[in-house]
Design goal:
The longest helix has 25 residues. With about 270 residues, this protein is mainly alpha-helical. The termini are far apart. The radius of gyration is 18 Å and the shape is globular. The relative contact order is 0.16. The protein has one domain.
Length: about 270
């Protein structure tokens, strides 16, 4: 646990560098906005979110898991099960919670105002997977902490889940192309870039599909899966309709103020 921040930081920068290199060598789509401005803003909000989380929740998810384990709180600290089962089931349960949370952020108007910061990006690349409003990050962590305590998720499970979720979010937001056969195979195990790109379509019915960040199974089981965008991956429009053609969507101050704009976003995005 002492090395957990360094492990996570190393995985973060390693995956970010690999995905960035892949995108530079073989991009899936041409970007609409300045890459450097977007990266500065999208990575800038990551730095802001990290500082905010460390200030408000210094223990973070792993620390809360350690406390729950010491105190014997939660389901897996009560049930007598092999350690590997507790780890595996905790990772699956936490992933399902993230799926439900994502659906909720689309369904409730107040939460959608926050989540619009993620969807307003006019391009789709590895940094889009890191672009979230600080208030959404705080709410997301609060939900995760409650789930960890109720589950009694082992510390190892929480560390693995955080690394997996962060890594797959960068992977499935990548502006990269996979061979169709490989993409079709991987979709049984993980959300692929082509699968998640549909979720960033300007068409509301497509925006309300493919909510998974890591595992694709919840979309299959709960009827929120859509295989391909109607306009094809090369022809589809990324982002939200009301922000098309607005260069300010790639600027950090605009991203921070978006949820507080009057007269927009009062509605949730519904089917």
């Amino acid at each position: 646990m002492e090395n957990e921040p360094l492990i996570r930081l190393g995985c973060f920068f390693g995956i970010l560098a690999l995905m960035g290199l892949w995108e530079a060598i073989a991009p899936r789509r041409q970007l609409q906005q300045s890459k450097w401005q977007r990266w500065f803003s999208n990575l800038g909000i990551v730095v802001l979110n990290t500082l905010l989380l460390r200030a408000i929740f210094p223990l973070a998810a792993v620390g809360v898991a350690a406390i729950a384990q010491d105190q014997g709180w939660g389901l897996f600290n009560i049930l007598s099960r092999p350690a590997w089962q507790g780890i595996l089931l905790s990772i699956l349960a936490l992933d399902f919670v993230i799926y439900l949370q994502h659906v909720m952020f689309h369904a409730l108007p107040t939460l959608w105002r926050l989540h619009k910061v993620h969807h307003a990006d006019l391009d789709f690349d590895v940094t889009t997977g890191l672009r979230f409003h600080p208030l959404e990050i705080l709410l997301s962590l609060a939900i995760k902490l409650v789930a960890i305590v109720l589950l009694g998720a082992p510390v190892v499970a929480v560390i693995l889940f955080e690394i997996i979720l962060n890594g797959t979010a960068m992977f499935n937001h990548g502006n990269v192309r996979l061979p169709k056969g490989l993409d079709r195979l991987l979709r049984f195990l993980v959300v692929t870039p082509d699968m998640h790109r549909v979720h960033h379509s300007v068409i509301p019915s497509e925006t309300n599909s493919n909510f998974g960040f890591n595992l694709p199974w919840w979309d299959y089981l709960l009827g929120t899966y859509q295989a391909q965008p109607a306009a094809s991956h090369d022809g589809m429009t990324i982002g939200l309709g009301e922000y098309q053609g607005k260069p300010e969507v790639g600027q950090l101050p605009w991203m921070l103020l978006l949820p507080f704009e009057k007269g927009i976003g009062e509605e949730s995005i519904r089917r």
